[in-house]
């Protein structure tokens, strides 16, 4: 990052955790002075509406601005939403890697790439990205949907979980489904991915077919899980723009073709 100069111009991304500052539901635009960021640390992380998008280093305890969740921006097209994810994830990385994990010296931010570096031992830390699988399971004309403990009384969605060390993505799919609902799956195939800066995940989506087993809930994670026919009334689903919703729509189409 670098010191933002008075004449610097573009769109400005200010974050607090997984939230960002908007003005009339848009990122603030203009020069650094009129947006109150001159003299702060920042860097350009891409283009937004054909203008530079500046990421401003997270301001501790910023009480002057009202921040909204990144989730409110799911309506944007994929390229814009992913760019906002980049900024949120980078600021999370910078604020959680102020000190070197090898020797404890305070890191500095080099200007040649998104990283932090230790001036004492020279170790360079790169942004941490936590891969997580998300999978839609089909059984003939039915899709498996689960109501998680954090969503009791709310949405039913696909199953997901973090990848463990020494595990392939496909192994994670099999393990998470078996752990959370006691089922075995087959015909696992890649669907797509979505950055998910809550705070630093990458959701890797898969489609899978039911192989065997009866639903057995992991009570600590899952409140309810059921098979739903594609042509019956469905419960509340995840919002448009999420990879979960895309997986569900694709699976329902496959159910209709079966």
UniProtKB/TrEMBL annotation:
Residues 127-251 form the Nudix hydrolase domain. Keywords: Hydrolase, Magnesium, Manganese, Metal-binding, NAD, Zinc. Coiled coil: none annotated. A divalent metal cation 2 binds at residue 176. A divalent metal cation 1 binds at residues 160, 180, 221. Its cofactor is Zn(2+); Mg(2+); Mn(2+). The keyword Zinc applies. Binds 1 zinc ion per subunit. Belongs to the Nudix hydrolase family. NudC subfamily. This is NAD-capped RNA hydrolase NudC. It comes from Gallibacterium melopsittaci. The lineage of its organism: Bacteria, Pseudomonadati, Pseudomonadota, Gammaproteobacteria, Pasteurellales.
């Amino acid at each position: 990052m670098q010191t933002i100069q008075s004449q610097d111009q573009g769109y400005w991304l200010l974050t607090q955790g997984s939230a960002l500052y908007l003005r009339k539901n848009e990122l603030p635009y203009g020069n650094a002075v009129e947006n109150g960021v001159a003299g702060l640390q920042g860097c350009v992380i891409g283009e937004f509406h054909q203008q530079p998008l500046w990421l401003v280093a997270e301001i501790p305890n910023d009480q002057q601005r009202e921040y909204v969740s990144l989730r409110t921006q799911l309506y944007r097209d994929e390229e814009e939403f992913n760019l906002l994810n980049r900024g949120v994830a980078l600021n999370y990385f910078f604020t959680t890697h102020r000190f070197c994990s090898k020797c404890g010296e305070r890191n500095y931010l080099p200007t040649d790439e998104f990283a932090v570096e230790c001036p004492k031992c020279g170790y360079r830390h790169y942004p941490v990205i936590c891969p997580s699988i998300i999978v839609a399971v089909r059984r003939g004309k039915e899709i498996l949907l689960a109501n998680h403990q954090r969503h009791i009384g709310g949405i039913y969605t696909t199953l997901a979980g973090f990848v463990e060390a020494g595990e392939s993505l496909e192994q994670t799919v099999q393990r998470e489904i078996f752990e959370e609902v006691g089922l075995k799956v087959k015909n696992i195939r890649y669907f797509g991915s979505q950055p998910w800066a809550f705070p630093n995940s990458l959701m890797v989506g898969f489609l899978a077919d039911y192989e065997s087993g009866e639903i057995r809930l992991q009570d600590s994670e899952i409140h309810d899980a059921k098979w739903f026919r594609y042509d019956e009334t469905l419960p509340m689903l995840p919002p448009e723009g999420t990879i979960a919703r895309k997986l569900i729509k694709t699976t329902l189409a496959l159910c209709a073709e079966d």
